[in-house]
Design brief:
It is a single chain. By secondary structure, the chain is an alpha+beta fold. It contains 12 helices and 4 strands, in the order ααααααββββαααααα. The chain has a 4-stranded antiparallel β-sheet, with helices on both faces. Helix 2 (30-41) packs parallel to helix 8 (190-206), helix 8 (190-206) runs antiparallel to helix 9 (212-224) and helix 11 (246-261) packs antiparallel against helix 12 (265-280). It is globular and about 65 Å long.
């Protein structure tokens, strides 16, 4: 894939306005938010490309059988269509690729991280009327079908394999070393899904200091969500300093120190020291 580069400042401002508006709507649309993330990453994704991705999700939904039955029947129908017929699945190498976190690229390549493949499952199944939702297991996102008492889990990264209880236990044990807590099986909020996707983008960029531009837009989109960790403001300030924007970074560090001082004056003083060091870089 070509190196993904962000759009022009004018296009970025418009995308972020739409992202913030959608995130604060009464019922945020997961596919729209994910595609706006993709457009912020990839200047080649224009309005026609955004529309084409939504049309592809609609097309895939139209290929599902009409209301196949209960939760397990839905899970099997999605596996047969998306996993077996269309070839959507993941591989270990997908963790090293930024496009594995971009919905439009996942639809094109039919490869991606577990959470992005789950977004494909969720959006196709939702359009077809399935009782579907995301399940944020520790370290591995999957999809769920049906109510708590009859819940069926499927793993899109493994081509939509329907999971047994033992399978789910193994996934959680591999990530945490302990068993499943019932709270882990609750439906994931769409905005939490988007934040988790942006966290993955930040992790990808953190391993590649030369792509601090990617880390910065991922943090800034995260800050547009109605609920986000306050520490993201500190991360943004550090990125600005890293990128040579010392004055702007110092201002952000000082603002974050004011927030932190209410609960930890020692930490606030350390952040103020970082702000002073950033300003010193201007001389």
């Amino acid at each position: 894939m070509r190196p993904p580069y962000p759009p022009s400042p004018e296009r970025s401002a418009e995308l972020r306005r739409r992202f913030a508006e959608e995130a604060r709507s009464e019922r945020p649309d997961l596919s729209t938010l994910c595609l706006l993330v993709g457009a912020e990453a990839d200047r080649e994704l224009d309005e026609a490309g955004l529309d084409a991705a939504q049309v592809e999700l609609d097309r895939l939904a139209g290929l599902l059988p009409f209301r196949p039955g209960g939760p397990r029947a839905w899970a099997v129908a999605l596996r047969e269509l998306l996993g077996e017929r269309m070839g959507f699945h993941g591989t270990p190498g997908d963790y090293q690729r930024l496009e594995s976190s971009l919905l439009h690229e996942v639809l094109l390549r039919r490869r991606g991280l577990p959470i992005l493949l789950s977004v494909v499952w969720l959006e196709v199944a939702r359009r077809a009327g399935a009782p579907v939702y995301g399940v944020a297991l520790p370290g591995h996102f999957v999809v769920g079908f049906g109510p708590d008492e009859g819940q069926v889990l499927a793993d899109p990264f493994d081509g939509g394999r329907v999971l047994t209880g033992a399978d789910a236990e193994l996934l959680v044990a591999g990530a945490t070393g302990s068993g499943i807590d019932p709270s882990m099986l609750r439906p994931a909020d769409p905005l939490d899904v988007v934040l988790r996707i942006l966290n993955n983008v930040r992790a990808w960029a953190a391993a590649r200091p030369e792509r601090s531009d990617v880390a910065l837009w991922a943090v800034e989109l995260s800050l547009l969500l109605p609920s986000h960790p306050a520490r993201l403001r500190y991360e943004r300030a550090q990125l600005l300093v890293q990128r040579g924007e010392f004055a702007a970074g110092a201002v952000e560090l000082e603002a974050y120190a004011e927030v932190v001082s209410a609960v930890d004056e020692g930490a606030a003083e350390r952040v103020r020291g970082e702000a002073l060091a950033a300003r010193a870089m201007l001389n």
